[in-house]
Amino acid sequence: MAEPHRIKGVLAPVVTPVKADYSADMERLIRHCRWILAQHCGLAVFGTNSEANSFSVNERMAMLDALVGSGVDPTRMMPGTGCCALSDTIQLTGHAVKLGCAGVLMLPPFYYKDVSDEGLYRYFSEVTQRIGDARLRIYLYHIPLLSQVPMTLPLIERLFTTYPQTVVGMKDSSGDWSHTKAVLAAFGKSGFDVFVGTEALLLAAMRHGGAGCISATANINPAAIRTLYRDWRNTDADAQQDMLNLVRNAVAKYPMIPALKQVVAHYSGDAAWTRVRPPLTELTAEQVHGLLGDLARRAFTMPGLRPDAASEG
Amino acid sequence: MAEPHRIKGVLAPVVTPVKADYSADMERLIRHCRWILAQHCGLAVFGTNSEANSFSVNERMAMLDALVGSGVDPTRMMPGTGCCALSDTIQLTGHAVKLGCAGVLMLPPFYYKDVSDEGLYRYFSEVTQRIGDARLRIYLYHIPLLSQVPMTLPLIERLFTTYPQTVVGMKDSSGDWSHTKAVLAAFGKSGFDVFVGTEALLLAAMRHGGAGCISATANINPAAIRTLYRDWRNTDADAQQDMLNLVRNAVAKYPMIPALKQVVAHYSGDAAWTRVRPPLTELTAEQVHGLLGDLARRAFTMPGLRPDAASEG
Questions:
Q1: Is B278 in contact with A145 (Cβ distance < 8 A)?
Q2: Which ranges in chain A belong to alpha helices (H)?
Q3: Are the Cβ atoms of B281 and A110 closer than 8 angstroms?
Q4: A146–B113: do the CB atoms touch at under 8 Å?
Q5: What is the model's pLDDT at position B307?
Q6: How many CB atoms lie within 10 A of CB A117?
Q7: 3-class DSSP state for residue A140?
Q8: pLDDT band at residue B308, thresholds of 50, 70 and 90?
Q9: pLDDT digits (tens, 9 = 90+) for A81-107
Q10: Exposed/middle/buried for A304, CB within 10 Å: 0-12, 13-18, 19+?
Q11: What residues of B are in the A interface, CB distance below 8 Å?
Q12: Which strand (E) or helix (H) includes residue A139?
């Protein structure tokens, strides 16, 4: 069974603010992380929605150092550490473990397609053995639409069976509930923690023994998502889920990362938040108008988000 | 029109030998590069078939240093330098330019899918401006099957028009001759150098104004491919192309990277060459038997490949 102190609940793949020269804007990142933590959500920094793969391993290590150095609690963090190169993944993962992070969210190597389960097993196995630290907790990151490299059930089973203290869970961003349900049915009762990749599936996941969700929208709507996580057994849970979906659907009509940054920019009054690192691009003026209008009609707010915009980075 | 000294002809995406601990085996890499150069082919180190994305930027820079340090001529090299992260691409590209490489082969950032031409333009534009070195020569790497991020004709045109001295060519690994032909027709006469990604299209490319090919099989069959490049106007060119295809087809039935390494291992008598870095896996015994049998029946040889195997790395 899972240790009682394992990280669970709602985590945000924290969007990464950038300065005009596209370097990471640490001041805004730390402030946003603190706001998310204050809503009782955890920090899956360096997720897909963090533009993680648009930053080098050195940049990501420096961000982790700055976050922990600023007092952000590493036991509330599950940084993404899966890169294409075995050596990169080992370096970044080792750094996260050394800093005391609760776990790491690990993409499979995603350049080569049609790789075998045997090859992926060797990859994760090599990472685990090279780190060689009992504190390492790996959450496998299944996001076939972007990685194009799926984590199959036989592969999950082999890794969980071989490294039951280390490969302790996954994030399922397939959006395919039948897949999530199959993973939960197969491994959920053995202490394998399954996070869904969207709060749209949070209630369903909790009813089937899930560990929570790691969702883009937790960057802007963390309190309400966290409330459903806490109250999923309550009679109003389905109504809460419907409310979450309204916000989710308003944002998900647009490219997710620039849309999230636009929402943070608008509700914090800090236009610097809208920047993305190439190859991504900002929303068009028309998209911004549509997105903010939809949210306003839903009376969406981000309470506690610092209203006094910091100076331009 | 293109400068006369631009790199052209046949280049090998050099397979990267690894030691038992999966680190790059520099001794074998240098030896293999020298053998390819001796067949009058160039070195597209860090290509797809080099397992480039399985190595960190630091590992790739160290390999470049070691190659140039050992006397390998950088003007015969077009290293792959395109990474997911803008910062990684800038660092690795800058290093290649500093070492005097003839050019760099640049993948688009390949984690995010469905990115816009505008976003890709900003990415390549930013790299070009950050490097800020008149010696920089970028060859765009179009390999949609693996990158899942195509380089469209409008994007190529915009980059070539904006940076005519820098974005000077491409490698087309689409395998789609109609696409290659369209690029050649649009930009070939203006000095844009198009390399095809397989020698199976070499003769066709040369007849339409192509610059050569960068092909996996140039790791094992460089002399014959180079001969067709030199002799493409000769009356026996079609017969030469047919002979090249026989070798190509024998290898291409199997996963390309482990197959190439198996062939090098066999014809050099050096079993250490068979190793691949995870997530790739070696060929099965049955595959090895089939591959080597097919090559033997074609009386395939690798003349000059050092027959005395070095000690196990």
A1: no
A2: 26-38, 57-69, 86-98, 117-131, 144-147, 153-162, 177-187, 202-207, 222-231, 237-252, 256-268, 285-297
A3: no
A4: yes
A5: 54
A6: 18
A7: strand
A8: low
A9: 999 999 999 999 999 999 999 999 999
A10: exposed
A11: 22, 48, 53-59, 83-88, 91, 108-113, 115-116, 118-120, 122-123, 126, 145-146, 148-149, 277-281
A12: strand A138-142
> B10 forms bridges with which residues in the sheet?
B213
CB contact under 8 A, B87 and A279: no
Q: How far apart are CA A93 and CA A89, in angstroms?
A: 6
Which one of A56, A83, A95, A123 would you mutate to disrupt binding with B, by most B Cβ within 10 Å of its Cβ? A56
pLDDT-above-90 percentage for chain A: 95
The residues on A that touch B, with CB distances below 8 Å, are 22, 48, 53-59, 83-88, 91, 108-113, 115-116, 118-120, 122-123, 126, 145-146, 148-149, 277-281
Distance (Å, whole) CA B65 – CA B85:
22
| CA of A121 vs chain B CAs: smallest distance (Å) | 8
d(CA B28, CA B35): 11
Task: Answer for the pair A262, A291: CB distance below 8 angstroms, yes or no.
Answer: yes
- Which of chain A's residues have a Cβ under 8 Å away from the Cβ of B91? 56
| Main-chain phi, psi angles of B273, to 5 degrees | -65, -15
What's the length of chain B? 313
Which amino acid makes up residue B290? G
Residues linked to residue B247 through DSSP beta bridges, in sequence order: none
Cβ–Cβ under 8 Å, residues B148 and A148: yes
Phi, psi of B283, rounded to the nearest 5 degrees: -65, 155
A74 prior amide bond cis, ω within 30: no
Give A171→chain B minimum CA distance, Å. 18
Q: Which pLDDT score, from 0 to 100, does residue B5 have?
A: 79
- Find all residues with CB under 8 Å of A260, minimum gap 6, and list them: A15, A49, A216, A217, A219, A220, A251
Q: Which among A109, A113, A146 is the nearest to B54, CB-wise?
A: A109
Residue entry with tokens 């007849």: B207
Region label for A47, one of left (φ > 0), alpha (ψ between -120 and 50) or beta (otherwise): beta
**Mutual angle of helices A153-162 and A177-187, in 10-degree steps:** 30
Phi, psi dihedral angles at B225 (to 5 degrees): -65, -45
Rounded Cα–Cα distance for residues B277 and B18 (Å): 7
Cβ neighbours of A191 (radius 10 Å) = 15
Pairwise CB contact (< 8 Å): A53 & B126: no
Token code pair at residue B109: 């950032």
Q: Residue A3's pLDDT is what?
A: 61
pTM to 2 decimal places: 0.96
- Rounded Cα distance, A287 and A54, in Å: 23
CB atoms within 10 A of CB B119: 22
